[in-house]
Amino acid sequence: MRNIVLASVAAGLAVLAAGFVPGEPSAQAPPAGGPGRQPASPPAPGAQGEDALHKAASATFKPIPSMVPEVKGNPVTREKVELGRMLWFDTRLSASGVLNCNSCHSLAAGGSDNLETSIGHGWQKGPRNAPTVLNSVFNAAQFWDGRAGDLRSQAQGPIQAAVEMAATPEHVTKVLSSIPEYRDRFKAAFPGEREPVTFDTVTRAIEAFEATLITPASRFDQYLEGNRAVLTAEEKRGLGLFMEAGCAACHNGVNLGGQDYFPFGVVERPGADILPPGDKGRFQVTKTASDEYVFRAVPLRNVALTAPYFHSGKVWSLEQAVGVMGVAQLGKELAPAETAAIAAFLRTLTGEQPRVELPQLPPSTATTPRPQPLVKNSLEPAAAVQRQAPPR
Length: 392
Ligand code: HEC
Ligand code: HEC
Description:
The protein is mostly helical. It is 36% helix and 3% strand. The protein folds into 2 domains: 6-60 and 217-349, Cytochrome Bc1 Complex, Chain D, domain 2 (Orthogonal Bundle); 78-214 and 355-387, Cytochrome Bc1 Complex, Chain D, domain 2. The protein has helices at 6-19, 47-60, 78-89, 101-104, 151-160, 169-177, 180-189, 199-211, 219-224, 233-245, 283-286, 318-330, 336-346, 381-387, and strands at residues 119-120, 124-125, 261-263, 294-296. It has a two-stranded antiparallel sheet. A two-stranded antiparallel ribbon has the order 3-4. Helix 3 (78-89) runs antiparallel to helix 7, helix 5 packs across helix 8 and helix 12 packs across helix 13 (336-346). It starts with 5 loop residues before the first helix and ends in a 5-residue tail after the last helix. Residues 99, 101, 103-105, 118, 120, 126, 128, 130-131, 133, 136, 139, 142-144, 151, 154-155, 158-159, 164-165, 206 line the site of one heme C.
């Protein structure tokens, strides 16, 4: 995992600038930018501009593949995916019997909960906004601070987190071993294992299911694959600005983010209303002073579906989030028309949502531990991030 290298931002910008000068070849190009410029309606780039834009975009971003990707060290088999889908929806993995993964990552709502920060065990308010699980298989690191390297170790987090599902590995394996159909399905999904029902196989089955939660064929993907007419002039202008202004130095690749960490506030730290001082981000993982308020450049796929924004969940409008980024990360006050164009581009990142069939969960038996819906938990939200410390 790479650590924050600000030089890479500059390098990325240089590459982008060399590959693409937005609007330049076009007769209708806007005047060269200075602070306070107010472009009127978005100009349609000329044919040459179109080519340069497409070329620059193809060098910076990658389409979501239409096939389920491979997962390192965990072959994605049908048996595992089906089992993972059952576990995803099974509330018996939580201490309360109330919460499942879908509670906070609703597959009917872009894989998130559309809350400022998540509500978990005992109606506790968690410390951070829930990122989408869609396409998370393409991220180099999981969580806002990247503290889990893959989805397998990630899945250990929420099951045990006191403010999320508040369970223990013992509780989970006890529940699943007490149900004959689950025992059979674990045996079929993990044929090589002497003891098929373990916390490790639980997380591997969930990881295999999550690998199927990808959203190909967004309008932007169609554009990258050669259908240039699929984006409007406004959306193309937004795409050009996204690269020209420097957003793409951090938000690039398949997921337009999810690969690296940067300070929230490279140029100017946002106020406490957006960046609450209590959550120091990656510092909590590395204990290195330079990692204070460092967070993962969030993947922007399906961002139109996943409001509110930022780890604090304090911003509900995509336009405002774009404006905050301009000032905080680039030291640029974007004009309203520029913000609108970039937001229009970001809305083209909504892909085909996975069609997930609800599983039929096998009933509990006499030996299945009973749910405890009303057990209180007194952890303060601030302590919760620590409690969810790196797995293992
Ligand atoms: C109570 C709400 C809640 C529940 C239940 C929950 N999550 Fe999460 N999930 C979150 C929050 C909040 C984060 C971000 C935490 C952080 O970054 O510190 C998160 C992060 C994630 C991520 C990382 C995504 C990314 O881009 O970084 C994945 C993957 C994920 N959860 C999967 C799961 C799975 C699998 C389950 C079920 C076993 C689950 N979650 C249950 C709230 C929840
Ligand atoms: C130096 C790297 C960097 C640059 C440049 C950058 N971002 Fe970000 N972006 C981040 C980080 C880090 C976050 C996560 C902030 C947090 O902790 O909530 C983020 C968050 C976001 C979010 C919130 C998404 C969500 O789901 O919460 C949006 C939208 C966004 N960026 C868009 C942009 C746009 C548009 C630009 C250009 C104007 C831009 N970014 C420039 C690093 C960057």
